[in-house]
Design brief:
Layout lengths: L6 H20 L10 E8 L6 E7 L3 H15 L12 E3 L17 E7 L5 H8 L5 E5 L10 E7 L2 H11 L3 E2 L2 E7 L2 E5 L2 E5 L5 H4 L4 E3 L1
Parallel strand pairs: 2-11, 3-11
Antiparallel strand pairs: 1-2, 4-6, 4-8, 5-6, 7-8, 9-10
């Protein structure tokens, strides 16, 4: 959507409404957590959908995430515009929330390796929780690019946006990941064309928590 597209106003309002909803309903009461839980900030992501939930916890972080997931499962929150279940993921990297016009969310991710490249098995293990994966294309050993990269194609846009927000900047040993979207090349009738992802209401305004 362009800078002056009136739909952007709706998206921003929708994101703001979901922020208030997260603070009031989507997170369980503080008394439910085994240790002290403090919500510090909720950061909506109007462009990709979802939001980042920043918090502090005196116990094990994964324990807090499990409590939140159980709360979401028990109540089955479903946003009006998407009707998909709200899900929560633990952020392992550094989310890059931006509004670059030409950076269009797509179901195919480009994963750059700043360090030794990761195997297909490791990529599958780390990225599968975000959604069903159609294909993983490993790094080309003959590529002359400074940074080697692999491509991960999700069956749904939601899986790709979730993965990008949670895994960008994640470190695995001596390797740091840099994630971005790439257009899907489709070959049809002996012609090569680029299939760009279209902002569909049910995908673009998806709502799921990212936990930091």
């Amino acid at each position: 959507m362009g800078r002056w597209d009136l739909r952007w106003l709706f998206v921003r309002k929708y994101a703001g409404d979901r922020k208030a909803e997260a603070e009031k309903e989507l997170l369980p009461p503080d008394s439910v957590y085994p240790h002290a839980f403090t919500l510090t900030r909720v950061q909506p992501n109007p462009k990709e959908g979802g939001m980042l939930v920043h918090f502090s916890y005196s116990g094990d972080i994964q324990e807090a995430v499990n409590v939140i997931r159980e709360h979401l499962e028990d109540h089955e929150f479903r946003p009006l515009l998407t009707w998909g279940k709200v899900r929560a993921f633990l952020v392992k990297g550094r989310p890059f929330v931006e509004d670059i016009v030409r950076s269009v969310p797509a179901s195919r991710l480009k994963v750059e390796f700043n360090g030794p490249e990761l195997s297909t098995e490791i990529l599958y293990k780390e990225f599968r929780p975000f959604g069903k994966i159609v294909e993983i294309i490993p790094a080309n050993p003959l590529s002359k690019d400074t940074l080697k990269s692999a491509s991960i194609y999700f069956s749904r846009l939601r899986g790709a946006t979730s993965a990008r927000n949670c895994m960008h900047g994640a470190k695995f040993g001596n390797t740091e990941l840099s994630l971005g979207y790439e257009s899907q090349m489709v070959k049809k009738r002996e012609e090569i064309c680029f299939k760009s992802e279209i902002f569909k209401k049910n995908d673009f305004i998806c709502f799921h928590l990212f936990l930091f």
